[in-house]
């Protein structure tokens, strides 16, 4: 009966509009939720039997499908927290609902903060996942899985500790005054095998006009040197030599010093601890190392290595590499924060906490570094806001209210018509 179908269609409309109202309500409630993706309710008509040609029309009603607009990005806003992260472009952060042995998911909600152990956890309780890195930037796991979550681990800044980096190279640059008798002494700081600061001493001894020996000591100038570089000549008398620039033609090392490379002005010294340090005094017959011109003694020294330092800051680049910065100036990569992606992001299953899980409709997981293979960039000290437009939601709320009232009128009218039919038998 057409009146009955009209009644059922009106009820169907009320039910569908209730679903839309619930979605709008949820969107408005989460308009300030970081990384929230709005729900969109779409309607489709239902047809019962054949409604073409002559005869009575039977209303089929309406059904709804509510989907999360996952691929619609929200506004990126700046914060003052270094562990707040947002993604510019496609991709999701890989997260777990437990610090260890949890269930994995994907999210755009990057409001990560250290928990009591230093593990980074967002406001919904999900822990950020990443690949641990060696000091040279390579992954600790040489072949991490990029199609599963299996190789990921929780990013824990509380577990980052400083390491002492022993010195391997010392460079000495100076002008040695022409016609000066010397000696001239300079200490160069280096870091020993245990992270302590020590000094190498350079002692320049005049051996004749424009000729010098360079003695290297581990500590003060006392006792036998580690090695001596003999007969460095600045006279320019050797073939092809320039006055004031070093000629190493007759120079030789001794003691604990290794073979001298005159072209580069380098030689190795071996300390009592077994630590080997390369000493660099500059290329032969070239400016940029040692020289002898009129003027003052002006030594400049450089050395690598770093003592044990305390963690000072965390920096995360656009490529997702987390770098630990220590108060000694040491910078060390510690984690690669990969981005996850799927073929159909809108097919992901929405779970509590603004997170998503893989489904048959989403396709397979793909992990990769930020800024690679179409993935977006990781932005530090930023958050992605909800993609809800309040004005749009309020407009939809008014439309839904009017449509609901209209469907209620249909139900009321159909009920009155049915009541008239029942009166016919009286």
Please summarize what this structure is.
By secondary structure, the chain is an alpha+beta fold. The protein is built from two helices and 28 strands. The longest helix is centred in the last third of the chain and has 34 residues, at 390-423.
Helical coverage, percent range: 10-25%
- End-to-end distance, in Å? 21 Å
Oligomer: single chain
Rounded average pLDDT = 91
Class computed from helices, strands and strand pairing: alpha+beta
Any overview of this molecule?
Helix content is 15%, strand content 32%. It is of the alpha+beta class and 426 residues long. The chain has 3 domains: 2-72 and 387-423; 76-162 and 311-384, no CATH class; 169-303, Tick-borne Encephalitis virus Glycoprotein, domain 1. α1 (2-29) runs antiparallel to α2. The mean pLDDT is 91.
């Amino acid at each position: 009966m057409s009146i009955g179908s009209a009644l059922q269609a009106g009820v169907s409309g009320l039910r569908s509009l209730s679903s839309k109202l619930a979605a709008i309500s949820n969107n408005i409630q989460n308009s300030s939720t970081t990384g929230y993706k709005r729900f969109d309710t779409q309607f489709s008509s239902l047809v019962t039997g054949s409604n073409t040609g002559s005869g009575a029309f039977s209303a089929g009603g309406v059904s709804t499908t509510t989907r999360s607009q996952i691929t619609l990005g929200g506004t990126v806003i700046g914060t003052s927290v270094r562990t707040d992260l947002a993604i510019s472009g496609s991709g999701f952060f890989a997260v777990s609902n437990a610090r260890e042995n949890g269930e994995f998911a994907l999210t755009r909600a990057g409001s990560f903060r250290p928990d009591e152990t230093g593990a980074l956890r967002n406001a919904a309780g999900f822990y950020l996942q990443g690949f641990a890195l060696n000091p040279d930037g390579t992954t600790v796991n040489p072949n991490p899985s990029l199609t599963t979550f299996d190789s990921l681990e929780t990013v824990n800044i509380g577990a980052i500790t400083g390491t002492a980096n022993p010195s391997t190279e010392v460079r000495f640059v100076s002008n040695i005054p022409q016609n000066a008798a010397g000696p001239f002494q300079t200490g160069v700081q280096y870091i020993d095998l245990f992270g302590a600061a020590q000094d190498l001493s350079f002692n320049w001894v005049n051996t004749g006009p424009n000729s010098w020996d360079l003695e290297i000591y581990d500590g003060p100038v006392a006792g036998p040197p580690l090695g001596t570089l003999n007969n460095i000549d600045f006279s320019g008398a050797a073939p092809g030599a320039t006055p004031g620039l070093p000629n190493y033609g007759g120079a030789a090392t001794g003691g604990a010093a290794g073979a001298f490379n005159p072209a580069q002005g380098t030689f190795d010294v071996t300390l009592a601890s077994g630590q080997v340090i390369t000493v660099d005094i500059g290329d032969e017959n070239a400016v940029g190392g040692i020289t002898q011109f009129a003027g003052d003694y002006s030594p400049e020294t450089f050395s690598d290595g770093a003592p044990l330092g305390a963690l000072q800051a965390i920096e995360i680049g656009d490529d997702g590499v987390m770098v630990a910065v220590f108060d000694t100036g040491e910078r060390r990569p510690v984690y690669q924060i990969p981005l996850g992606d799927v073929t159909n992001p809108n097919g992901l299953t929405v779970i509590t906490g603004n997170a998503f899980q893989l489904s048959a409709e989403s396709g397979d997981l793909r992990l990769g570094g930020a800024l690679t293979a179409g993935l977006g960039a990781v932005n530090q000290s930023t958050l992605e806001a909800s993609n809800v437009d309040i004005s749009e939601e309020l407009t939809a709320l008014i439309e839904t209210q009017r449509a609901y009232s209209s469907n209620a009128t249909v139900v009321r009218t159909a009920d009155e018509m049915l009541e008239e039919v029942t009166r016919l038998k009286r």
